[in-house]
Amino acid sequence: MELKNFMEDIVLSKMEEVLRQYPNCCTCENCKRDIAILALNHLPPRYISTEKGQIFARVESMGSEYAVETVTQIADAIEVVMAHPRHEANK
């Protein structure tokens, strides 16, 4: 049985859009990964294991409450990563 946190897909799909609003934020893979991890740690998980569950999760995720909370958590994570990037300065 395969399990998946559907919120990963939601965060990754919205992250580039939110990052465009922060032109001074580093977009190296390490920073983007840290942003996604921070955002996901502050969002409720939505695990799915079947195609029916995936369809339900997609419909549920389209609600404005999910969209606003997801974007808010991504923006908060960007602020944290901008203040404390973990990548090497010479990259």
What distinguishing features does this structure have?
63% helix; two-stranded antiparallel sheet; mainly alpha; elongated; 91 residues; 2 strands
Would you mind describing this structure in some detail?
The model has no long low-confidence stretch (mean pLDDT 85). This protein is mainly α and 91 residues long. It has four helices and two strands; from the N terminus they run E-H-H-E-H-H. A two-stranded antiparallel ribbon has the order 1-2. Helix 1 (7-19) packs across helix 2 (29-41) and helix 1 (7-19) packs across helix 4 (64-83).
Listing every helix as H and every strand as E from the N terminus to the C terminus, the arrangement reads EHHEHH
Give the percentage of residues in beta strands: under 5%
Tally of separate helices = 4
Radius of gyration: 14 Å
What's the β-strand tally?
2
Subunit arrangement of the protein: single chain
The stretches of 5 or more residues where confidence is low (pLDDT under 50) are none
The major sheet is characterized as:
2 strands, antiparallel
Mean pLDDT over the residues: 85
Helix content: 55-70%
**Strand order of the biggest β-sheet:** 1-2
Structural class: mainly alpha
Instruction: Give the overall silhouette.
Output: elongated
- State the end-to-end distance: 40 Å
